[in-house]
């Protein structure tokens, strides 16, 4: 399968570099490019991409706003945001908006290619270790909208209410996702098969109206469950 890709970045040198990195991959076709988030809707309508590689900082419509608008549409392509920081507080907002992850602009070319392939296959770009690191480092200093603030009680209550929709086993799987465990690790810990874990994850996404497992992890984080010893959350 050929992965159709759009690159959106206001720096023409960055776009040229990405073209060089990704153009050599036989299974990736760059079908369009843009210099601002305002161009994303037209580019997506015109080219029907599988993945959008999106810069965060752009002059008119930033990548975060463009991601939120795009991911709210039915049948939207996956989005990977580009950033220059491991712990940019704005990345958290992008993940909440439904981005499948992020890559650093100085990431080795082979890893960027692999990231596009993984996202196109339905897997988040963030590894379990990076997922947990990002959430714990960023969420401590980012409140709603990315501004510095302590954890909001209303956000925690809302997260608790959403997780209450899950069955006991689904809740256990959600907590394990929040801990940054892979499907294989969850299967071993809960004595399930990997296909069963995948089924539970799919049901959790459907019940909670989420886009990917990164958002499951963020919801578990918002509920404060990652700070509790096993057993104190009812699992």
CATH class of the largest domain: Alpha Beta
Following the backbone from N to C, one meets helices and strands in this order, namely: EHEHEHEHEHHHHHHH
The beta-strand count equals 5
Q: What low-confidence regions span 5 or more consecutive residues with pLDDT below 50?
A: 141-150, 228-235
Strand proportion: 5-15%
CATH topology of the largest domain: Rossmann fold
Distance between the termini: 41 Å
Cα shape: globular
Largest sheet: 5 strands, parallel
Relative helix content: 40-55%
Radius of gyration: 18 Å
CATH architecture of the largest domain: 3-Layer(aba) Sandwich
Helix tally equals: 11
Overall tally of domains: 2
* CATH H level, superfamily name of the largest domain: Response regulator
Chain oligomer state: single chain
The helix-and-strand class reads: alpha/beta
Strands in their spatial order, largest beta sheet = 2-1-3-4-5
